[in-house]
Amino acid sequence: MKRTTRDHFRVQVTGTLHPQRLGDFGGIKMSDSFVSSDIAGDYQRRCEEMVKVLAKAYPDLKAEVVCDSREECTHCGCEWEVWTAEDAARWPEDESSVVGEPVCCEEAQTEFYAAKAVQA
Length: 120
Ligand SMILES: [Zn+2]
What we know:
single chain
């Protein structure tokens, strides 16, 4: 399955301000996963708070929350890539691959063909 992850939330001003780590309690630092069940959401909220504070302190400043997002496979965690028509044209000898088929791992391919079988 394809999953979209959002990562590296930050506030874009003229430069970039990074939120304090979720697990940073001053003297004690913990892994984010210990203190949050919604790491992306918590970082987003933390960034939105920074934007609010900045907007109040500097009304002329343009600040916005930005993040990186990437699509990855829920099975292997690799970047989501599929066999495309361009790939098929480039490697015509690979007749077993179907356009749209995930290329990362066997589990994703099995799932792809199972979904196709249901549709057919
Ligand atoms: Zn995979």
